[in-house]
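Hi R.,

Here's the chain you asked about this morning:
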Amino acid sequence: MAKHIGIVACSAEGAALCYQTICKEGSKLMGSHTHPEVSMHTHPLSEYMEYIYRDEWDGVTRIMLSSSEKLAAAGADFLICPDNTIHQVFQDVKKDSPLPWLHIAEEVAREAERNSFKKSAILGTKYLMTGSVYPHAYDKFQLAYVIPDKNIRERIDGIIFNELVYGEIKPDSKKYFLEQIRVLRDHGCDSVVLGCTEIPLIVLPGDSPLPILDSTRILARAALNFALSA
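And the predicted structure, written out as tokens:
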């Protein structure tokens, strides 16, 4: 019997894509119209951002634990969070969580290793790109990584929070993402991590100048595999 997946959501578009991937790809592994039981809980994104803007990450921890407890009460067996940025407090959350977790960046690094990638460009919110989430995960797998310069980070962050979290895909923004990925490729990167769970909405595999590591779908597939493991 498959384990019950609990999704600690943060932003709607990324969480929805993760949920859809679990349901759609579950059918490939389990049979027509079949997937593991899934429950999701989310506090408003604004509650997370109030703490993040003030650099009060203990507040982010409390919100994630609140969702964790609700999902445990709903019967989930383990948890995932389809939001890279708030993984900054993952260790604190994991310590007090009622349930075990999968770590999104570690699953991405594991996928990079499986594909023999050696140096990934990391794209995401400005908090993610300058934070410890991917450095810790990539160091664990002895992989290299690069982040864009500050001005580029600010532009990408603006696109994420002003457009992508609302499901808005603007041609100029798409062009900007692809241009920056091309620059990172020319600086020696062999892959690009879509380290905001909304970026897969605007950077598609057939368009990207680099092979993509889609954190949203990688996490969803890891959750499926874990749910079906003995």
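The chain has two domains: 5-103+218-228, 104-214.

Let me know if you need anything else.
M.
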